Amino acid sequence: MESMGTDSGVERRALVVEDDEDIRALIEFTLQTQGFVVTAVDSGLAAVEAVRETRPDLVTLDLGLPGIDGIEACRRIREISDAYVVMITARDDEIDRLLGLETGADDFIAKPFSARELKARVNAMFRRPRTGSPAVAPLPEDDHEVLVHGALKVDVDGRRAFREGEELELTRTEFDLLTELMRTPARVWTREALLRSVWGTEWALDTHLVEVHIGNLRRKVGEEKNGARFIRTVRGVGYRMELAE
């Protein structure tokens, strides 16, 4: 049985938000076998409070919750936490998936899903190197890896991104995506290549993950300001960086 284990003895915590008792029990058990200490709640409001109390590294969030739904719960969670968020939905259509991602969710899984699929998705996210949260990271040091592209600057080790000196509020996934693009600015990345590199997955439908996160990233780096452009769509292929005009 594969286990997440711990990094340098640091305990990993997960929050499961699901109002269906059977599905909640399945997710709890699956994450426990991955080495997580799991807390479970059955509503969106309880989820926000549990995030404040337990400071989880991972949140699995059902879309159709009583009270506030998963989309609103995710928005509120994103205001107080940079945990990985996996949105789980029984409504298998693009609108729900896109809405979930626009709130800051890192991934989505459609019901029904298997324990094996959930494990694979979680493992892929936690294989990404983490050096700390942007909210508490120190200012860039001389020995940090720093990437500069036009008005954009990324302090890779401090996990902070800036435009013209103003810090950008990026999710973990948005930060990883921008870093990957800026490391090789002349490269045209296919959606599939970005999935492998940033998400660590090759699930066929997940190219929508890339498209939505690119859209969110463009908005956050301020591409609409003064007509500036940082990320170019290469029609029929994918994306690459482009200097602002």
Please compute the radius of gyration using only Cα atoms.
18 Å
Query: How many helical elements?
Result: 8
Give the topology string: H per helix, E per strand: EHEHEHEHEHEEEEHEHHEE
Low-confidence parts:
130-141
Approximate strand percentage:
15-25%
What structural class do helix, strand and pairing data support? alpha/beta
Q: Which word captures the global form? A: globular
- Count of extended strands: 12
How many structural units, i.e. domains? 2
Fraction of residues in helix: 25-40%
- What is the CATH topology of the largest domain? Rossmann fold
> Which second-level CATH architecture of the largest domain applies?
3-Layer(aba) Sandwich
Strand order of the largest sheet: 2-1-3-4-5
- Please give the oligomerization state of what you see: single chain
Please give the CATH class of the largest domain: Alpha Beta
The largest sheet, given as strand count, sense and whether it forms a barrel, is: 5 strands, parallel
